[in-house]
Each structure stands twice: as C-alpha cells, then as structure tokens.
Amino acid sequence: MANETSIVEVRQADPDDWAVYREVRLAALADTPAAFASTLERELAFGEDVWRDRLGSAVTYLAWRDGAPVGTVTVLAYHESHNHPFRGAAHLVAMWVSKDTRGLGIGRRLVQAALDQARSAGAPAMVLWVFQDNERARALYERMGFVATELRDSRPGKPEDVELLMIAGLR
Fold it and tell me: Strands, DSSP E only, in 98-170?
C-alpha cells in the first residue's frame, strides 16, 4: 500500500541529472512500452551524451518520493514540426509515474510543473497526445484543464492505437 504521508518533490532536471533521468526513462519504457514513441532497446544503447543533450534541449521534471525518482515529464517548446496546428503551444511529452506511486498525486504535480513552466515561457497553450483508451491519463489531464480536440492520430502500422490531441489554454 502506498504511503500517502511520503515526501514528494518535483524539480527540474539538468544535464548533470542524466543518470537518474536515464533510470526513470528506461523504467517508463519497460513499464508501459506502448505509451511512448521509442523503445527500451533503442534507448538502452544511448550514451551519456544523448541523455545530457535531452536534458539540455528541453525542460524535464523529475518527481521524487522519499528520495527515490518515481516519475517524469518533459515540456517541448513549440516547433512547427510538431504534429498539431496550435501555433506557439508548448508540448507535454514523456509523462510517466511509477506503478507503485500512482494515485498519490504525483502525476498531478508533474503536469502542474509543466503547465507552470509553459506559462512562464509565454506559451499561449499546452498540447499533448494521449491514447484514447488510456482513461486514467485522460481523466488526469481533464482535471488539469485539458480538453480533447477533434484531432486524432495512430501509430504507423497500428491503426487501432488511436491517440487524441488535448489542449489547455494558459492565458
């Protein structure tokens, strides 16, 4: 049973946190491989330089529970190559909370950190893609102010894996 009185901290990672971020990211890929656009095998091969570059080129938060890393989320600044029409919107990606800490509000804290960061960077909105069948994640995002758009997408070769685009206004 999860201890709800545990100390939880969410803080921005920097390139020197690469080893911890690697640990969390690999745990996420092992736990829910279908939720990410990468694979455990691919990222196991990454060297320190790739992990440092990731943390230096985007804003990533790590969640800690009683001193152990238990979750992560990344905020990407808007880029026209992103698969959405919302100009200027930040993009929430790579959200994950460990199985044994789900339901403790860690996901909410990670999403709030991402929203706060995007707002402070001047983004007019934040978008994210979530699998249509992932009701738990969708409910979290809805509680955090995201609403589903009409945009849908699926994985190459897996038309049954439908993702929907959600957006939250930040102004």
Answer: 125-131, 147-155, 158-169
